[in-house]
Recover the amino acids of this structure.
């Protein structure tokens, strides 16, 4: 599995709805790719925060700053 394929199936991975073979390929990729591991960790954290605090709306500069930080952390 490559990064793009993992990103496309990240929600399925987190929900446990991949086939056993796909899950194994995802785990193997995550074991060797720090970038994808970071994206997975951040996605889990966002999911946790949404469950804890609900949805919020960010406007203007705050929204742009958050998007910039997310993109910077995946490089």
């Amino acid at each position: 599995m490559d990064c793009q394929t993992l990103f496309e199936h990240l929600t399925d991975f987190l929900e446990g709805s991949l086939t056993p073979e796909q899950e194994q390929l995802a785990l193997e990729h995550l074991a060797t790719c720090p970038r994808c591991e970071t994206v997975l960790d951040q996605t889990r954290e966002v999911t946790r925060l949404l469950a804890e605090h609900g949805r919020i709306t960010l406007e203007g500069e705050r929204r742009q700053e958050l998007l910039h930080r997310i993109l910077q952390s995946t490089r």
Summary: The mean pLDDT is 89. The chain has five helices and no strands. Helices lie at 3-8, 10-15, 20-32, 34-53, 60-73. The two ends are 19 Å apart (CA to CA).
